[in-house]
């Protein structure tokens, strides 16, 4: 499987590009098909026989990674003696969140695993010929350095999958992100284009955040905190991708409601089902903005460490976490407005039904009163009419 960065480097001159998560591509395809005009479709169909690649929708040209991917080409094409081989950073999200407190009581975890700030860190794991390290975060994703996708899925199944109660809200399909990194002691640690460079770093300003008694690890200890910062940004992007896919599925399930209202004047869904949909929408908003591990705030860990904060923000910006978060919030707001209209319709429908029930109850009470007191009322009415007739005759 060709990694994201290699694919960008290979095709940067012919304009082809793919986003670093499958959910981005799926969402773009939907937007592309929805906004294509009839004239554009006809012109494209005339060229399909000439160029099979014309069938593929082109992604947005404003993607940050596309604009900056060329910046990594000099490093990729000009290796130096101090530079290591290019390796993979692979991220996998398998659940809505992980209960990290369940990990330390599990006996099957690698012996060298330990807590590292807001993650569970495994400094050495994998096959002997390609060992790597893993950062497990509470947002339901983990980041593998120096391991490929197959290794990441094995870790998810053989390690995390065997910890009871760890995964909350397992995903149907795991979400992935893939970047690449290179180690070079002669360079500064940074994100260049779509390539992470692990090199020189200044020591942290606070001794409290610097881990002590470090176990043996695969990658250099000098860049451990930088790898942690990059990993946290990557994990957020992958967790956001999972949320985007879930929200798209939710919006697809609600897509027929406007058509049903237009055709029948009814939502075509029971009151209970609509309330459940409203609960799902509130859950999306909570997961996006209100949880401790949200997508908008910079973690407190970086406030006193500007260099680590720069690494975290650089990768978050390259993966467009903020703009994607705003986009998800807009979709949730629109869905909330639609839900508000449906709640109004349900309230009016309930009021109308109550009015009908009250009218029916009054009618039933009138009928019962007529059956029970009808003869007596009839006699009273007849007696009154006879008296009136007698009085009129005397007159």
From TrEMBL:
Entry's Gene Ontology BP terms: positive regulation of mitochondrial translation
Domain DUF155: 134-329
Biased segments, Low complexity type: 61-73
Amino acid composition bias (Basic and acidic residues), ranges on this chain: 47-56
A single Gene Ontology CC term: mitochondrion
Stretches for region Disordered: 39-82
Signal peptide: none
Superkingdom per UniProt: Eukaryota
Similarity comment: Belongs to the RMD1/sif2 family.
Name of the protein in its database record: DUF155 domain-containing protein
Source species of the chain: Dendrothele bispora (strain CBS 962.96)
Origin organism lineage: Eukaryota, Fungi, Dikarya, Basidiomycota, Agaricomycotina
